[in-house]
């Protein structure tokens, strides 16, 4: 066997498990969703075979849910980013090295508990017997936190913060400290060093974190349901209702396809933007 | 030598992180990781708690060692299942659902794994039509006595003369109100929505369930709970959109919010109303005088039930009046079975939440299958929730 052929064979063998996995659990289900989206709702719910674009024509019926998602998901990801960056910066550049692992572990460990349980805990913390009761005890007027958009945002930031901190932390940790010294030697203030060196070089980490959180938020339904009292309606909630309540599978499938399309477009745009901002260097997002 | 709390620990923080990172690098096995960190033991304990470990078999394993049922929140006396497991060795996994549509969707998708479930009256004909449930073999249910059943509540268990489901209990859909917070008397769906928009603003809940939320909004105008007429539904939608900014939540899980005091007013099913009133006497359960919904929940066995022998055994256990009576005491819903009513304590039989006066029951309607599956009502609900 020639060495080139051998190399190709090894590559193919290495890629085969992932390819089979993706084909079975991503490509095939997605094909099924596309087929469903061209069908009709059976009279008692479910799917009836058909070949129609009616479901796609009906997409404006969920315009509000799409709009809520497209506003709140980037806002949530941005809030995560603004809170996560100082934490990651501290972890990567400021903290004593012997404490660093412990602190990283403290950020990761809550992830071992189900998001559902952690979000449910917030229902009680924010509910009348939680923080509001404490505030009344110290003499403040009656307040309500649960089932407000603010509670949803809090839940989102709490739930997804580690996903934002870790990629930024990694990109900052790899940062070549000599660049910071060089910048200082050349007369830059710490302020301008941060903006023209540190921030720029951590951009790939920021975009990775932003994309990770954004993708998850685009499909989010649990947090708005539990902390928003079912009044904050994301596209994820519309999907759950269409599959589990009104059982309009074809329309739900059409929305799922549209959501995937929106996600892909947003990611491509984010990728472009990162490439441009970080100076045409090759950047791998995920 | 100084003593520290760390001395007794099996693993120091540093060692734990080392192991964690080695595990993540793949240089130690999962088994070793679970062993040294103690997480394996924790998982094994949890698995035992949740019935993942083999249980002692009964009658040479004829019934298997586990089964799964789908039912409603706060709906059973937990002791019922414990007793059944002790008697038969069959561990019961309980899945709790928020709506009939969700149950239907799971069964329609297949592979639910349930051997027994608790559908409401208006879904049974649909399940039968979709061929998702088995006709019941009464020979395997000696504890069921058709003659003892009140026919008003049991009729929908039969589809085209074939018995497909037997009743668990009946009930009504009214509303629960915290009378300490909302003192004005309320007796109608009109008052429910009017209070929700005024004194109860920010403290009121409607179900995350189109059948009841739209049905009760229809009753505000005196229309049928089951109306599918576009102009009547438009009026109901107008009312719901008007009330939405005042709502505390759109959720069928209203007990926690009513108990904590977050919510003062909610659409409510009999059994929840009875439980709330029992624990917090100032929470009253009210039936709208315009009417509203009356319902029966049934037990049925899915066609693809993985453990039918255990399903029949459990169903027969539940049909035993001595067992059923404890179920009714626990969940606070009235019984369809005269044998059970004879055993119920007098205070339950006299409880107007469970057994309302005849004049309040008369105008109530059973939900219809078409009401549940109507696409226009589903879209109305989606517009209401996303508004």
From TrEMBL, chain A:
PROSITE patterns: ABC_TM1 (PS50928). Residues 66-270 form the ABC transmembrane type-1 domain. It comes from the Bacteria. It is found in: Cell membrane. This is Spermidine/putrescine transport system permease protein. Belongs to the binding-protein-dependent transport system permease family. CysTW subfamily. InterPro entries: MetI-like (IPR000515), MetI-like_sf (IPR035906). Pfam families: BPD_transp_1. The chain crosses the membrane at residues 70-92, 101-125, 145-170, 209-229, 249-270. It is a multi-pass membrane protein.
UniProtKB/TrEMBL annotation, chain B:
Coiled coil: none annotated. PROSITE patterns: TAT. Keywords: Periplasm, Signal, Transport. Its main location: periplasm. It is found in: Periplasm. InterPro entries: SBP (IPR006059), Sperm_putr-bd (IPR001188), TAT_signal (IPR006311), TAT_signal_bac_arc (IPR019546). Signal peptide: none annotated. SUPFAM superfamilies: Periplasmic binding protein-like II (SSF53850). Pfam families: SBP_bac_8. The keyword Signal applies. PANTHER family: SPERMIDINE/PUTRESCINE-BINDING PERIPLASMIC PROTEIN (PTHR30222), SPERMIDINE_PUTRESCINE-BINDING PERIPLASMIC PROTEIN (PTHR30222:SF17). NCBIfam families: TAT_signal_seq (TIGR01409). This is Spermidine/putrescine transport system substrate-binding protein. It comes from Ancylobacter polymorphus.
